[in-house]
Design brief:
It is built from 11 helices and 12 strands. The chain is α/β, with parallel strands linked by helices. Strand 2, helix 2 and strand 3 form a beta-alpha-beta unit. Helix 1 packs across helix 9, helix 3 runs parallel beside helix 5 and helix 6 crosses helix 7. Bound molecules: S-adenosylmethionine and iron/sulfur cluster (SF4) (2 copies). One iron/sulfur cluster binds next to helix 10.
Length: 332
């Protein structure tokens, strides 16, 4: 069991498959900004990813979540899922996606060994979605993708909604009701100050507490006590049908104390925090042929000296940093 300097165990990997995306969400990759995506050869290959995942699995990682950027844009992602499912020790492979083309891909991904999927749904109104995502989004197809994921047996299928005041916060109850009726858990995420490109400011954050109060006033909820310290979401269930809903309160009630995640970015750098300024360049070592035992030693050093707790320190920082890694690169 590998613990960091603050006693947090290494448990999960977030693996970013690409920094590219076919959406331009205003809270992640605002359309007015210019992006320089990584050239193909800078991305880790599937073989390289498997090598690092093998080392991490030997250090205790059991769960891998594929993310990005938009992970479904990475060609032959099903092949990668298959390769990772055969790594000894890996018990759970999940995916976070904007849902584009999920309907076509869900069955193959399930057959390849994917267990769970989280689909981001930012609005149920096309005109609002277009403002958020910087492009037209066909909501009917998005929902059909979620239905298909459920049908093929991905379990659980969850929804993420990032809430931005003045953008989609007036839809919180409608989104909650829609997915409650579908039997799908939604997690409402507080708008975070990730990366350096968004126009984040505290006035655009709606607190998890307020989100829960709004839902509870229409559809009564009860809190679920979680024993898992690394659980990021505060969980509730509807009293009438038992479906769960949650909030991820990185801003108003940070949860760094239970943070058990390591992140491998699309460019092959290893990060120990979503808000990190620097990553560790694992890719060049892998390309130079580092031995797996040496890689494990290096990762051990990185994890055991980890002291990150950005969200807990956010408002006490004397100096605002403008050198944070972008979320679409490190893997959201
Ligand atoms: N493209 C995929 C997607 O959108 O699901 C995976 C990557 S995306 C970075 C992962 C999650 O991060 C999405 O659910 C998105 O809503 C959320 N997200 C992105 N930027 C955010 C921000 N500034 N604050 C809170 N959540 C954010
Ligand atoms: Fe793309 Fe996901 Fe970022 Fe939106 S949140 S721009 S879908 S990576
Ligand atoms: Fe983990 Fe960093 Fe988020 Fe805190 S701010 S929960 S350390 S990723």
């Amino acid at each position: 069991m590998l613990k960091d300097a603050l006693g947090r165990q290494l448990k999960d990997l977030r693996l970013s498959l690409t920094d590219r995306c076919n959406f331009r969400c205003m809270f992640c990759m605002p359309p007015e900004k210019e992006f320089h995506f990584l050239p193909r050869e800078e991305l880790l290959s599937f073989e390289e990813m498997r090598f690092v995942v093998e080392a991490l699995a030997e250090l205790g990682i059991r769960k891998v979540r594929l993310t990005g950027g938009e992970p479904l844009l990475r060609r032959h992602i099903d092949k990668l899922v298959r390769m990772l499912s055969s790594v000894e020790g890996i018990k759970d492979i999940a995916l976070t996606t904007n849902g584009f083309n999920l309907k076509e891909k869900a069955a193959l991904l399930k057959d390849s060994g994917l267990k769970r999927v989280t689909v981001s749904v930012q609005s149920l109104k096309e005109e609002v979605y277009e403002k958020i995502a910087g492009r037209k989004v066909n909501i009917k197809e998005l929902i059909e993708g979620i239905e298909e994921a459920i049908r093929v047996g991905l379990n659980p299928v969850k929804v993420n909604t990032t809430v931005v005041k003045g953008m989609n916060d007036d839809e919180v109850v409608d989104i909650a009701r829609f997915f409650k009726d579908m039997g799908v858990t939604v997690r409402f995420i507080e708008y975070m100050d990730v990366g350096t490109l968004t126009e984040w400011d505290m006035d655009k954050v709606v607190s998890g507490k307020e989100i829960i109060e709004r839902i509870n006033s229409e559809m009564p909820l009860e809190a679920i006590e979680s024993e898992d310290k690394s659980e990021v979401s505060k969980r509730y269930r509807y009293i009438d049908n038992g479906v769960e809903v949650g909030v991820i309160t990185s801003i108003t009630e940070p949860f760094c104390g239970g943070c058990s995640r390591i992140r491998l970015a699309a460019d092959g750098k290893l990060y120990t925090c979503l808000f990190a300024q620097e990553g560790f360049d694992i890719k060049s070592l892998v390309r130079k042929g580092i031995d797996k035992e040496d890689l494990k030693e290096l990762i051990k050093d990185i994890w055991t000296s980890r002291r990150d707790r950005y969200s807990e320190e956010r408002f006490s920082r004397r100096r605002k940093t403008n050198k944070k890694v972008e979320m679409f690169r490190v893997g959201g």
